[in-house]
Amino acid sequence: MNAFVRLLSAAPFSSSEQRFICSARSSHSLFLSLIRIFGIALLALATDLKAQTVFQQNANGQAYNYPGDPNGTGYFPSNSNWSQIQQKDAAGNIIAPSNWNVSTGVTSGVAVTINGNATIDDANYTISSLTLSNGGAVSINAGVSLTVSGNINNTGSMNVSGGLVFNKMTNNPGSITSAV
Asked: What is the pTM of this model?
Protein backbone atom coordinates (compact mmCIF):
# COMPACT_ATOMS: atom_id res chain seq x y z
CA MET A 1 0.00 0.00 0.00
CA ASN A 2 1.46 3.40 -0.87
CA ALA A 3 2.07 6.10 1.75
CA PHE A 4 -0.76 8.37 0.53
CA VAL A 5 -3.37 5.63 0.83
CA ARG A 6 -2.07 4.71 4.30
CA LEU A 7 -2.20 8.40 5.30
CA LEU A 8 -5.88 8.55 4.32
CA SER A 9 -6.76 5.24 5.96
CA ALA A 10 -4.72 5.94 9.11
CA ALA A 11 -2.98 2.59 8.62
CA PRO A 12 0.49 2.39 10.22
CA PHE A 13 3.53 3.22 8.06
CA SER A 14 6.43 0.87 7.60
CA SER A 15 9.85 2.14 8.73
CA SER A 16 10.99 2.68 5.11
CA GLU A 17 7.81 4.69 4.38
CA GLN A 18 8.41 6.81 7.52
CA ARG A 19 12.03 7.50 6.47
CA PHE A 20 10.83 8.51 2.96
CA ILE A 21 8.16 10.87 4.33
CA CYS A 22 10.60 12.50 6.81
CA SER A 23 13.26 12.83 4.12
CA ALA A 24 10.77 14.41 1.69
CA ARG A 25 9.54 16.86 4.35
CA SER A 26 13.10 17.77 5.31
CA SER A 27 14.19 18.34 1.70
CA HIS A 28 11.05 20.37 0.99
CA SER A 29 11.60 22.56 4.08
CA LEU A 30 15.25 23.09 3.20
CA PHE A 31 14.32 24.02 -0.37
CA LEU A 32 11.68 26.53 0.81
CA SER A 33 14.13 28.05 3.31
CA LEU A 34 16.76 28.51 0.62
CA ILE A 35 14.19 30.12 -1.70
CA ARG A 36 13.13 32.52 1.08
CA ILE A 37 16.74 33.48 1.90
CA PHE A 38 17.59 34.00 -1.78
CA GLY A 39 14.44 36.10 -2.27
CA ILE A 40 15.20 38.29 0.75
CA ALA A 41 18.79 38.81 -0.45
CA LEU A 42 17.58 39.84 -3.93
CA LEU A 43 14.99 42.20 -2.44
CA ALA A 44 17.62 43.82 -0.21
CA LEU A 45 19.99 44.23 -3.16
CA ALA A 46 17.27 45.68 -5.40
CA THR A 47 16.12 48.05 -2.64
CA ASP A 48 19.68 49.21 -2.00
CA LEU A 49 20.34 49.84 -5.70
CA LYS A 50 17.06 51.64 -6.21
CA ALA A 51 17.44 53.80 -3.11
CA GLN A 52 20.56 55.73 -4.24
CA THR A 53 19.64 59.23 -5.42
CA VAL A 54 22.27 61.72 -6.59
CA PHE A 55 21.83 65.52 -6.74
CA GLN A 56 23.24 66.64 -10.08
CA GLN A 57 22.06 70.26 -10.28
CA ASN A 58 20.75 69.78 -13.80
CA ALA A 59 18.69 72.98 -13.73
CA ASN A 60 21.52 75.35 -14.56
CA GLY A 61 19.99 77.67 -17.14
CA GLN A 62 21.08 75.74 -20.22
CA ALA A 63 19.30 76.23 -23.54
CA TYR A 64 17.14 73.48 -25.03
CA ASN A 65 15.16 73.01 -28.22
CA TYR A 66 11.50 73.44 -27.44
CA PRO A 67 8.87 73.05 -30.17
CA GLY A 68 6.35 75.21 -28.27
CA ASP A 69 8.61 78.27 -28.30
CA PRO A 70 8.29 80.48 -31.42
CA ASN A 71 12.09 80.64 -31.61
CA GLY A 72 12.37 76.86 -31.15
CA THR A 73 14.54 77.19 -28.05
CA GLY A 74 14.02 77.86 -24.40
CA TYR A 75 16.04 77.87 -21.21
CA PHE A 76 15.84 75.53 -18.28
CA PRO A 77 15.51 77.25 -14.90
CA SER A 78 18.75 78.08 -13.15
CA ASN A 79 18.51 76.93 -9.57
CA SER A 80 19.85 74.58 -6.96
CA ASN A 81 16.44 73.68 -5.52
CA TRP A 82 16.27 70.34 -3.75
CA SER A 83 12.66 70.05 -4.94
CA GLN A 84 13.41 70.57 -8.66
CA ILE A 85 11.77 67.60 -10.43
CA GLN A 86 11.26 66.92 -14.09
CA GLN A 87 8.41 68.93 -15.59
CA LYS A 88 6.78 68.37 -18.98
CA ASP A 89 4.33 70.36 -21.08
CA ALA A 90 1.06 68.91 -22.43
CA ALA A 91 2.87 67.48 -25.47
CA GLY A 92 5.36 65.60 -23.28
CA ASN A 93 8.35 67.88 -23.93
CA ILE A 94 10.66 68.38 -20.95
CA ILE A 95 10.49 72.04 -19.91
CA ALA A 96 12.47 71.68 -16.68
CA PRO A 97 14.87 68.90 -15.69
CA SER A 98 15.07 67.16 -12.36
CA ASN A 99 18.06 68.26 -10.30
CA TRP A 100 18.43 64.58 -9.38
CA ASN A 101 19.51 61.48 -11.27
CA VAL A 102 15.84 60.41 -11.12
CA SER A 103 12.97 62.43 -12.59
CA THR A 104 10.86 62.31 -9.43
CA GLY A 105 13.39 63.80 -7.05
CA VAL A 106 13.84 62.59 -3.49
CA THR A 107 11.33 60.34 -1.80
CA SER A 108 11.36 59.14 1.78
CA GLY A 109 13.90 56.51 2.72
CA VAL A 110 16.48 57.06 -0.04
CA ALA A 111 20.22 57.50 0.34
CA VAL A 112 21.19 60.91 -1.03
CA THR A 113 24.52 62.04 -2.49
CA ILE A 114 25.13 65.76 -3.10
CA ASN A 115 27.82 66.58 -5.68
CA GLY A 116 26.85 70.22 -6.23
CA ASN A 117 24.99 72.85 -4.22
CA ALA A 118 21.50 71.96 -3.03
CA THR A 119 19.06 74.25 -1.25
CA ILE A 120 16.10 73.05 0.81
CA ASP A 121 13.63 75.92 1.00
CA ASP A 122 10.14 74.60 0.29
CA ALA A 123 9.29 71.54 2.41
CA ASN A 124 10.50 69.10 5.07
CA TYR A 125 12.31 66.00 3.83
CA THR A 126 13.21 62.64 5.38
CA ILE A 127 16.00 60.52 3.88
CA SER A 128 17.94 57.44 5.01
CA SER A 129 21.49 58.85 4.64
CA LEU A 130 23.31 61.87 3.25
CA THR A 131 26.72 62.02 1.59
CA LEU A 132 28.20 65.40 0.75
CA SER A 133 31.04 64.85 -1.70
CA ASN A 134 34.15 67.01 -1.65
CA GLY A 135 32.80 70.39 -2.66
CA GLY A 136 29.16 69.33 -2.26
CA ALA A 137 27.03 71.66 -0.17
CA VAL A 138 23.53 71.73 1.22
CA SER A 139 21.68 74.73 2.68
CA ILE A 140 18.62 74.20 4.85
CA ASN A 141 16.68 77.45 4.94
CA ALA A 142 14.63 78.70 7.90
CA GLY A 143 11.18 77.17 8.27
CA VAL A 144 12.05 73.76 6.78
CA SER A 145 13.95 70.71 8.01
CA LEU A 146 15.90 67.70 6.87
CA THR A 147 15.67 64.46 8.83
CA VAL A 148 18.37 61.87 8.15
CA SER A 149 17.43 58.57 9.79
CA GLY A 150 20.95 57.18 9.30
CA ASN A 151 24.34 58.80 8.94
CA ILE A 152 25.68 61.96 7.32
CA ASN A 153 29.09 61.67 5.67
CA ASN A 154 30.17 65.27 5.23
CA THR A 155 33.22 66.02 3.10
CA GLY A 156 31.55 69.20 1.82
CA SER A 157 29.66 71.84 3.76
CA MET A 158 26.30 72.36 5.41
CA ASN A 159 24.61 75.66 6.18
CA VAL A 160 21.68 75.14 8.53
CA SER A 161 19.15 77.90 9.20
CA GLY A 162 16.22 75.48 9.53
CA GLY A 163 16.09 72.11 11.25
CA LEU A 164 18.47 69.18 10.92
CA VAL A 165 17.84 65.85 12.68
CA PHE A 166 20.33 63.02 12.24
CA ASN A 167 21.73 59.89 13.87
CA LYS A 168 25.48 60.38 13.33
CA MET A 169 27.67 62.82 11.39
CA THR A 170 31.19 62.27 10.13
CA ASN A 171 33.01 65.45 9.04
CA ASN A 172 36.05 64.51 6.96
CA PRO A 173 37.04 67.43 6.45
CA GLY A 174 33.53 68.85 5.99
CA SER A 175 32.08 71.80 7.83
CA ILE A 176 28.73 72.73 9.28
CA THR A 177 27.51 76.22 10.15
CA SER A 178 24.29 77.05 11.90
CA ALA A 179 22.28 80.25 12.02
CA VAL A 180 19.92 78.74 14.55
From this structure: 0.64
